[in-house]
Each structure stands twice: as structure tokens, then as C-alpha cells.
From TrEMBL:
InterPro entries linked: Cyt_c-like_dom (IPR009056), Cyt_c-like_dom_sf (IPR036909), Cytochrome_c-type_DH (IPR051459)
Pfam families: Cytochrom_C
Superkingdom field: Bacteria
UniProt GO molecular function: electron transfer activity; heme binding; metal ion binding
UniProt keywords, alphabetically: Heme, Iron, Metal-binding
Domain spans labelled Cytochrome c: 38-143, 185-295
Record protein name field: Mono/diheme cytochrome c family protein
Coiled-coil stretches: none
Keyword Metal-binding: yes
Length: 314
């Protein structure tokens, strides 16, 4: 065997070992037992905040609630949100609450496979055991629907789930939702929602070629959303420059109507209709307070009620 052939063989063998190692590489942590009693109403509210219902229900096709959502077309392929009803074959009726916790907080299926990050699990990593118990209690009230989810239409190499282990190692991090002592309860609640459950950064933060969010440009806008739409910057400075205030931003998140009388466009229409219009006035105001203040000092403070008419796409 010539030197070049030996090198090619060695490289191939090494590659096979690496791939084999990735395939069997265990990921995630074993979740502790969930012993809390779940609150159905709080769980249903959290499911709305988190987008579970809007994502996993194909409303346009008249689909049953949580029986599987419409396809999400991306540069990596089309992803189909699965059935989350209590059906034991097609849904999550055969799961345990601990398996549910691992799926929601870690993005790992009961079989140990990583989920694609089209599922916004990175934003749910800080959910408490009580949050999980509440969500679980709410999902247990959903009637079973025997409707298997469509298979993801993902082309090679993105169809190789072992590759997601590399993605997780490179881009997965917990959302910064822990309370900041120097801030009041309202600001901290807004941060918890915006950075966590409401997962605003999933759309409003730009991503690199691998689909990882750019941590040095959080909320700076995304020009390449699935379906060709765009998400504008929602940094404090950007919002203030466009005339947003706490009151008109909270109102817009509830109604979809901007101060100019126009309406949100693009994917924000779905966000309002499926998620934010169901939030309490206190939570909407908390989100607005946090978004207009942010984690970093704002260069230009705009008094509430001042400024030009806000951008219709937010």
C-alpha cells in the first residue's frame, strides 16, 4: 500500500472513530424526580407564554390543539413540530414527567436523541421543577389525538442527529434569567420572560452559518428568518429611537397595534395572536420595562410618551 493510500485509509479510520464516538456519546443530565403537584391553570399560561400551543397546533389547516404544527422551513430543511397530546403512540401519553422535563429543559428525547434547535428548548433550560410540574399537569388535560407527526425534511448532512451533539457543544448555553439584585421585581420578571419562556431572542438575535445565536448581538435583529421575513432590532436604544415606550409597547404586544395605528407585520402577527395577547397586563408591562431598559445602560433615555411613531414591524 502506497504512502498516500495509507494516509487516506488512516484519515478514513480516524473519521469513522470520531463519528462512532459522537453517535454513542451520551448527552444531558438525568433529571431529578419531579414531586411537585402541578397547577393546570399556571401550566396552561406558561404553555402560552412559551409558544407551545401556537407552534404545535396547525391552525391554518384546522388541526387539533397540540396535535402537531405546520412545517417550519429553514436553510437546513423543513421541521415539523410533533404531537404533544396525550395519545400514547403519536403524542406524549406514554412519557413520564421526568422524560418531559428532560425534553423541555435539555432538548433530549426519551430515547436519548437530541432535538433539533428549531425547538426552542435552549430558552427553557431555567424552568423550575414547579414550572415543569405545571406544564405537565396542563398537557395531561389535552385529549389524545392519534396523528403521527410528519418526518422532518432535512437533507444531508443535517439529517445526521449525532451532528447535533457538536452543535450543542458549540452553541448551547443557559438563558440568563437569574434575578439581578440591583433591579426591582418587575424588571426581573420581564427579564425572565424575554430571555427565557417568551424566547424573544429566537427571532430577534442574528445567527451564524451554523444556526448559533450571536451572543455579542443579542436582540440586534435578524435579517434571515425562516420564510424570508425579518426581525428588527429590539435593543433598548433601537426601541427608544423608534418611539417605543413602556405603555405603547405593552399595548402592542397585547393587540398587535402600533402607536401609529398600523399593525405588526411578519411573524409578529403569529406571536401576538398565539402568545402575547394571552399574557397578563402585569407581565406585558414587565416585558416592556425590561426591553426598554435591558442589561446594559442605554445611551439615550427617552421619556415615556415621547418620540416618533413606532416602527410597524417592531
Amino acid at each position: 500500500m502506497g504512502r498516500m493510500k495509507k494516509l487516506v485509509f488512516a484519515a478514513g479510520a480516524l473519521g469513522a472513530l470520531v463519528v462512532g464516538g459522537l453517535v454513542i456519546w451520551p448527552i444531558g443530565k438525568v433529571p431529578a424526580s419531579i414531586t411537585q403537584t402541578g397547577d393546570v391553570q399556571r401550566g396552561a399560561y406558561l404553555a402560552r407564554v412559551s409558544g407551545c400551543i401556537s407552534c404545535h397546533t396547525n391552525s391554518e389547516a384546522g388541526g387539533a390543539a397540540l396535535a402537531g404544527g405546520a412545517g417550519l422551513a429553514t436553510d437546513f430543511g423543513t421541521f415539523f413540530p410533533p404531537n404533544l397530546t396525550t395519545d400514547k403512540e403519536s403524542g406524549i401519553g406514554g412519557w413520564t414527567v421526568e422524560q418531559f422535563a428532560k425534553a423541555v429543559r435539555q432538548g433530549i428525547s426519551p430515547s436519548g436523541e437530541p432535538y433539533y434547535p428549531a425547538f426552542s428548548y435552549p430558552f427553557y433550560a431555567d424552568f423550575t421543577d414547579q414550572d415543569i410540574a405545571d406544564l405537565w399537569a396542563a398537557f395531561q388535560t389535552v385529549p389524545p389525538v392519534a396523528e403521527a407527526a410528519l418526518e422532518h425534511d432535512v437533507k444531508f448532512p443535517f439529517d445526521q442527529r449525532w451532528g447535533l451533539k457538536l452543535w450543542r457543544a458549540a452553541y448551547l448555553y443557559d438563558p440568563p434569567t437569574e434575578p439581578i439584585d440591583e433591579k426591582n421585581a418587575q424588571w426581573n420578571r420581564g427579564r425572565e420572560l424575554v430571555r427565557g419562556a417568551a424566547h424573544c431572542g429566537a427571532c430577534h438575535t442574528p445567527r451564524n452559518i451554523g444556526g448559533g445565536r450571536l451572543l455579542d448581538a443579542v436582540f440586534a435583529g435578524n435579517e434571515a428568518l425562516p420564510g424570508g421575513s425579518k426581525a428588527p432590532s429590539i435593543t433598548p436604544n433601537s426601541l427608544a429611537e423608534r418611539g417605543w415606550t413602556v405603555s405603547n409597547l405593552a399595548y402592542a404586544l397585547r393587540t398587535g397595534v402600533t402607536p401609529s395605528g398600523d399593525a405588526f407585520g411578519g411573524s409578529m402577527v403569529e406571536v401576538v395572536q398565539g402568545n402575547t395577547r394571552f399574557l397578563s397586563p402585569d407581565d406585558l408591562e414587565a416585558m416592556a420595562v425590561y426591553l426598554l431598559d435591558g442589561d446594559e445602560p442605554r445611551a439615550d433615555r427617552v421619556a415615556q410618551g415621547e418620540g416618533a411613531a413606532a416602527n410597524k414591524d417592531m
